[in-house]
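Subject: Protein record for review, amino acid sequence with backbone structure tokens
Why sent: The fold of this protein is of interest and is recorded here as tokens.
Enclosed: The protein record, placed directly beneath this head.
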Amino acid sequence: MRKYIAEFIGTFILVAIGTGSVVYSAATAQSPITIGLSFAVALAVAIYAFGPISGGHFNPAVSLSMAIQKRLSWIDFIGYIFAQFLGAILASAAIYGGVAPYLKSSTVTSALSGQSMTVSQFVNLAGLGQTNFSNGQEWYALAIEFVITFLFVLVVSILTLQRHTPAPIIIGLWLGILIIVVMPITGGSLNPARALAPALFVQGKALAHIWVYLIANFAGGALAAVVTKFFLTKEEETEVQAEA
């Protein structure tokens, strides 16, 4: 149970801080760099805090990769993704709940020149940090999300096998860089839970397009597992299975 709670809290931190940096900067000049850095730091901190307990996945695509590599049991995989999706959904709920006080802040009232805006109007206009893409670009978006998720999970899988590497920092920065690169195209999900949670609240096109992220992210994680196993020596593979 401790592992599942750790995955729940870690995913909550990642989604709350990451998407919160998008939502609560809507009234100012948003920067992909600061948003990417928010996701990067949130992930690194979560891994440092909860990695020793659960392995620090906080991403169903990572958990799928670890299960395929036999570094996570399939029973734990089910528990992990349930905890991750729940943590992400509650994080989006928390961000949604913070919109009302945000609208009363001096930053927003100044940007609106004293005019009022309801929570519903804000969410319709600025969103909740959901990932999305232009209509008609489904297969292009799927290809991009598949590739960047594969690259992210591959690096995670390899780095976590190296005992003397500062994996949390590198993994966090790698996530942030990938998000910055593809944010203008797909929003930079790389994580099915992170994609689904805000889409459930925003709905509309974001929810209609969610299948792209679910397929691409899970498929990218699965391919990363296969490639990681290809790179492993027999001795390393035996050691990984013994530790699982």
Q: What stands out?
A: The chain has a mean pLDDT of 91.
